[in-house]
Amino acid sequence: MSTDAGGYLDRQIQAGIPVHRLPAECLNQTGVIRVTNEGDILVCPHKGQQEALNAPERYVFILSGSQAGKTSIGPIWLEQEIYGKTDKKTGKVVRAGRGSGDYLAVTASYDLFNMKMLPELTRYFCDYLGDGRYHPGPKVIELKDPDTDSFWAKTAKDDMWGRIILRSAKTGTGAVGVSRLEAATAKAAWLDECGMDDFTIAAFESVKRRLRIHRGRILGTTTIYNHGWLHSEIFIPFLMGAKDIKVIQFESIQNPAFPLDEYEEARRTMPGWKFDMQYRGIFTRPAGAIYGDFDETRHVCNPITIHTHWPVIVGIDPGAVNTAVIYLGIHPDTKDIYLFRESLEGNLTSAEHARRAMDPLLAYMYVDWYGGAKSETQFRMDWQTAGVPVQEPLVNDVEGGIDRVISLLKGGKFKVFRTCTQTISQLRQYSRELDSSGQPTEKIRNKASYHLLDALRYAASGIPTGWEQPTIAQMSNNQPIPGFGFRGTVGGMRI
Description:
Layout: H1 5-14, E1 33-35, E2 41-43, H2 47-54, E3 59-64, H3 70-83, E4 85-86, E5 93-95, E6 101-107, H4 110-128, E7 132-135, E8 140-143, E9 162-168, E10 186-192, H5 201-211, E11 217-222, H6 229-239, E12 245-250, H7 260-269, H8 272-279, H9 296-299, E13 300-301, E14 311-317, E15 323-330, E16 337-345, H10 350-358, E17 366-371, H11 377-385, E18 390-391, H12 398-411, E19 414-417, H13 421-429, E20 432-434, E21 440-444, H14 451-461, H15 472-476, E22 489-490, E23 493-494
Parallel strand pairs: 3-11, 3-12, 6-9, 6-10, 10-11, 13-19, 14-17, 16-19, 17-18
Antiparallel strand pairs: 1-2, 4-5, 7-8, 8-9, 14-15, 15-16, 20-21, 22-23
Helix pairs in contact: 3-4, 6-13, 10-11, 12-14
């Protein structure tokens, strides 16, 4: 890449790159890796990249603008985790390496795996350092034993001193699918473009499970694409003071090689919210967000006890692949409404779904059930046969149900247990499609993917107003709550 020598040098200085220490032949090179005439490799991170390399927290996430240098720092961070970090001036070990074992590198999709992650890793470990060699069959980079300066394996099936296992979050059970990690135990993981829709919270949780034995660290590097689990599980806890999370944000132009004209053109021509997310690494409420009033700092809470005398409303969205169930508990005194349980399961019969939905509520005195679209009469009949008196939702059209949920969010009484991570993620991502000018349309984006929010709509339709707390006599005699509109169910069965 050609650059204006004087301007580029000034921008490197502004970015915190120690140009005064670089040989002349490296001054006009771009990227975090510079190569001297003698073939020596120099790592020259800018301020944002250096902050990530220095961060001691267990979960370190770079949220940056596009082309800001987030992906290129991933291999260098992994090298530190594997071999450790030493102060070049004093020779003192700054951070001990985790040593022999398995390490993970996971990206959002197979295309990104091929185009970005694999080239970055092989270039750094195999070409620059000479400490790795790629085995294309199992999709792993074998790591050289530093004590013997040799590779152990003769074939891809042999034991190795260390491995970087490369996987994709989207491909499921495929050759590089994240689900293929379930037998692995790893010491650290790099997650690239983990903010994309394809990188689900299920994939993130799968990676975390692989790291538990060694209490492995995670580096996440991504541009901001949505307000999903990355916002609720990482960014909000960081803002609230979580000690094991570090979030580092910087703009595209933190990379001194990023063209200033390109940045300014994007600023002029893009919607402000989109520019902030894609070029500044800032979470901004996108145009088209349906539940724009949802705020984790107000609507998400730690779990509390949902007592058995509290009224409970259950919403069900049946599906051929997944059936979603949402549980709302209502505090009899404060009228606060708690979304305390979520379920999204498949490959079960209607009777099995019904039994699993009912089992957690067998001890509860007041339970009402709503589910299915107006046309899904057979689903309700099947569940009723299985002992669950599912009713048709009181508000069945989508927009009317959305209005009910928005009213809950605005009312200040609605809380979601922090453990209901899939629902929280969907509440942030639920949005309308945008037209060519970036304005919201009436069509809901990927509507068929939001089963839990459909179940929430059905449950919200059954929330009453103006009801009174039941008396002790009413509770002891299993009587319906006056004005509550329940059909009197005990432990999921009709009274």
